[in-house]
Every structure is written in structure tokens, then in C-alpha cells.
Q: What sequence folds into this?
């Protein structure tokens, strides 16, 4: 049975042909490469004559036309992106909105039902924490996408980017609404329920983005 590897997310498919779309990241079949058979590879390596020293020397890289300053900048950028992926910066930053937003929605619900301004204020403080975290979430997510997944334009990555953007925009909107009407939740009424509904949408977008990320990590 042949083995095919998705060069975007690393998913391994077994079959005579690669799948039309990667079941993990959604990349099309052109992004799959056939993996060599391990047994045959070892036999070929054993039968292959030693390579002359002159042929084994790596080729010298030709100087880039854009000059050394651009090359150094690109090298620093790649190093930063590599560190972001190596130390899992994006999953760590994502835990902030994913962990805080469920509590935020719960506080808004309680404030709405029982007219509790203290919990409404706690919910707003949580929203502020989410907003402060979102630049790091978006930046590390973008860097991981470009470096680890080669900027693949699939539905999965489009959904993650869209949900991250919606979380940021909706968080700003809800904070601005509260600044204009500080008692929007605790005072009850129609606006308070709309305020809660938007919090639930905010939570939904964060959950969808988290599920997409989990699909990439837990490929099995």
C-alpha cells in the first residue's frame, strides 16, 4: 500500500492514489507527495556506491540580488517564526480567549437575570483581557500559518482567520456598547438580551476557531 504525505499539515494517507482533499487541512491532492517504501529505501542506500568527496560538497549559495541587509532581515523573520512554532506560542495565546469567553458569557447571563452590576463589570473586565490578548493571538496564528503551513489557502485556514477577525471586531463592539450604556446587561430589557446574544456569538466564533486548530494538532 502506498503512503502519501500532505506537505501542508503532515497528514499521512494510505492508498493507491492521494485523496482529492486532505481530510485535515483541506489541501488538494497536488499537495501530497508519495513517501518512499522504507524497506526499498534501505536496500537502495546499501547498494549505492560511495559518493566522491567532490560530489558530496554542498553547493555554495549564490548571492541574492536584494543585498545582505534584506537577507539578514528575512533570516531574523524566519528565526522568529520558527521560535513561535517551536514553543507553541499560538496555542498558548489562544487559551486566553478560549478560557475567558465562556465565563464572560456566564457573567452576562447572571447579571441579566438578577440585575447584578458587579458581575456585569466582571464580564467587561474579562472582555478587556480578551481584547488585549487578540493581537498576540492573530500575530502568532499568522506566523504559524505562513511558516508551518506555508500559507496554504484552504477552507480550514480561511475559517480560522475569519473567526479570529470576528472575535476581535465583536469584542471591540461590545466594549464600546458598554462604554455608551454601562448598565446594558444589569438593567435587563431587550438590549440586555441582545448584548448576551452577541456574547454567545463571540463564544461560538472562538469555539469554531479552536476546533479547527484542534483538527490540525490531533490529526488522527
A:
Amino acid at each position: 500500500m502506498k503512503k502519501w504525505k500532505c506537505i501542508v499539515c503532515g497528514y499521512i494517507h494510505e492508498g493507491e492514489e492521494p485523496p482529492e482533499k486532505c481530510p485535515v487541512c483541506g489541501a488538494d491532492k497536488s499537495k501530497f507527495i508519495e513517501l518512499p517504501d522504507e524497506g526499498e529505501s534501505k536496500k537502495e542506500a546499501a547498494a549505492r556506491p560511495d559518493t566522491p568527496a567532490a560530489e558530496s560538497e554542498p553547493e555554495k549559495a549564490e548571492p541574492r540580488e536584494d543585498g545582505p541587509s534584506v537577507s539578514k532581515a528575512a533570516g531574523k523573520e524566519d528565526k522568529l517564526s520558527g521560535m513561535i512554532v517551536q514553543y507553541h506560542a499560538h496555542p498558548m495565546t489562544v487559551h486566553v480567549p478560549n478560557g475567558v469567553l465562556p465565563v464572560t458569557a456566564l457573567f452576562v447571563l447572571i447579571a441579566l437575570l438578577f440585575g447584578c452590576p458587579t458581575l456585569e463589570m466582571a464580564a467587561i473586565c474579562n472582555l478587556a483581557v480578551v481584547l488585549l490578548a487578540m493581537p498576540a493571538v492573530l500575530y502568532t496564528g499568522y506566523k504559524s500559518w505562513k511558516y508551518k503551513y506555508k500559507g496554504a489557502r484552504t477552507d480550514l485556514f480561511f475559517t480560522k482567520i475569519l473567526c479570529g477577525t470576528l472575535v476581535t471586531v465583536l469584542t471591540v463592539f461590545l466594549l464600546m456598547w458598554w462604554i455608551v450604556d454601562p448598565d446594558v446587561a444589569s438593567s435587563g430589557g431587550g438590549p440586555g438580551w441582545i448584548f448576551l446574544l452577541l456574547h454567545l456569538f463571540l463564544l461560538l466564533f472562538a469555539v469554531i476557531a479552536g476546533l479547527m486548530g484542534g483538527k490540525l494538532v490531533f490529526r488522527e
About this structure: Confidence is low (pLDDT under 50) at residues 51-65.
